[in-house]
Amino acid sequence: MSKCPPRLKMTNRLHVLRAEHRLTQEQLAREIGVTRATIGAIEGGGYNPSLELAFRLARFFNTEINAIFSVEEDK
After folding, report:
1. How far apart are the first and last CA of the chain?
2. What CA–CA distance (Å, rounded) separates 20 from 48?
3. How far apart are CA 58 and CA 66, in angstroms?
């Protein structure tokens, strides 16, 4: 019988980057082409963005994806 791999937990620093750039959720959403609710859900951990959206965020903030998002094993 195969053992299930450990679940992964994604965390993010999106709210920190947004605050450093003095942007509201609405402003950031407009800049990258999503809704304010999407930004709120990502920041709150209730939504993991697609790879495309993660790249858009990284490009907007001129950083790497792993500077915004990190993954760890959920224990």
Report:
1. 21
2. 22
3. 9
